[in-house]
Specification:
By secondary structure, the protein is an alpha+beta fold. It has 13 helices and 17 strands. Helix 3 (27-60) packs antiparallel against helix 4.
């Protein structure tokens, strides 16, 4: 969320920034509501002062005339009516403020969609094969480690089952990633609920904008998480964090649930896009001046996973049109998948500045006697599991149909090859 004071003082900047994203935001409506709210507050304060004066007059004199009593009732009724109107205005204003996206950094390229993202670097040359590399859905079915038909039978389209060494490989990959981030990168592991409240989903930025892509239990008004970012972003909602605890670096593995709505075709074939998948998520809470440095560290930690797996990867800077509403700057980390002939995004590392902290009301004191401030939050996958599995299967495939597993996973899998 962007503060109303900022919008009031930078209305044109907010409009231009939204336009760069391809959005149209109700800045004029927000400013009008803000003016009505402020004038209403002033009027209510004057009425309360008037009521207090009448009350004082009644208390200091023996004159309990009907005129003074009627005046007291009239002012009280007017105050109650005005407070009701103010409550409606503040609710409408808050709802509109939730629709305003964050302000992109100045060095974020202007663009319409992901086709305008900029390649920052590529790690290594792409591998060559002495045969036509196969896509992961063929590899998985041939090795009997992915079952698409039975996944669809029990749950519908875009669900699948991992079997035998396929399931072992996923479990091993998750454990290795968590151990890497905790032992080498300095993160603290969390175990998190997979269902969250409406206020939690709103605080992280998923609601109200992405309600139609989330699974929702209406009876208890709980939402299935599309990413561990959602609960982690609200760990300290409505709290003032002790300065000694910042920075905070968290990592968590969770299942993720999303109502994927992409059209059918090669883009959605296999396990690239599913309604349920596993992900390892990194999350940082830092002082505002440290967030650019923290973003670089986040990207480096995601890249380290790719490098240790020995799979070619590249980093792209998202353009304004591809940027999420919470982020001011995002780098995508992509793995090469030769069988699919595609670069697969396995991590989006984002600096959300104080956007989520404002929504969730997370604050900290820079010093003991200083006024509470909003910290900055950052998030990035470390990594998304299905697409990493795709890259492992397609890069490790052999002419005889077997798959060689990256060496760093051997002690976790207990095998070095799937055949």
């Amino acid at each position: 969320m962007i503060g109303i004071e900022f919008i009031r003082n930078n209305a044109d900047l907010v409009r231009r920034s939204a336009e760069k994203r391809g959005d149209c935001v109700p800045v004029d409506q927000i400013l009008n509501l803000d003016e009505r709210r402020r004038s209403g507050i002033v009027k209510a304060d004057k009425l309360r002062a008037q009521r207090n004066e009448v009350s004082r007059q009644i208390g200091n004199t023996k004159d309990h005339s009907k005129t003074l009593i009627d005046e007291m009732k009239r002012v009280g009724t007017e105050i109650k009516s005005l407070e009701s109107k103010l409550s409606e205005i503040e609710e409408d204003l808050h709802s509109l403020l939730l629709s305003i996206p964050n302000i992109p950094d100045n060095d974020v390229p202007i663009g319409k969609d992901d086709s305008d993202n900029i390649i920052v670097r590529t790690s290594k040359d792409l591998p060559t094969f002495g045969f036509e590399p196969r896509p992961h859905w063929e590899i998985g079915e041939n090795l009997n480690i992915i079952d698409f038909k039975r996944g669809a039978k029990i749950s519908g389209s875009r669900f699948y089952i991992l079997k035998g060494k396929g399931a072992q490989l996923q479990r091993s990959l998750i454990q290795w990633m968590i151990n890497l981030h905790t032992s080498e990168h300095g993160y603290t592991e969390l175990y998190l609920p997979n269902l969250v409240t409406r206020s939690t989903a709103t605080g992280s930025g998923q609601l109200p904008k992405f309600a139609d892509t989330m699974y929702h239990d209406q009876e208890d008004d709980l939402w299935m998480i599309p990413t561990a970012e959602m609960p982690i972003a609200n760990l300290y909602s409505n709290e003032i964090i002790d300065r000694d605890f910042i920075p905070m670096d968290y990592v968590a593995h969770t299942p993720c649930f999303r109502r994927e709505k992409a059209s059918a075709g090669r883009e959605t074939r296999g396990i690239k896009r599913g309604h349920q998948f596993e992900k390892v998520e990194m999350f940082k809470i830092v002082e505002p001046e440290k967030s650019p440095e923290a973003l670089s560290k986040l990207v480096a930690d995601a890249e380290a996973v790719c490098s240790l797996l020995g799979i070619p990867h590249r980093v792209k800077l998202q353009c304004t049109g591809d940027l999420s509403s919470t982020s001011v700057k995002t780098y995508d980390v992509e793995l090469w998948a030769p069988g699919s002939n595609d670069w697969l995004e396995v991590s989006s590392c984002s600096n959300c500045t104080d956007f989520q902290a404002r929504r969730a009301n997370i604050r900290y004191r820079p010093d003991t006697d200083s006024k509470p401030q909003f910290p900055h939050t950052l998030n990035g996958s470390g990594l998304g599991i299905p697409r990493t599995l795709i890259a492992i299967l397609e890069n490790g495939q052999q002419l005889d149909g077997s798959v060689v597993i990256p060496e760093v996973l051997h002690k976790y899998t207990g095998f070095d090859q799937i055949n």
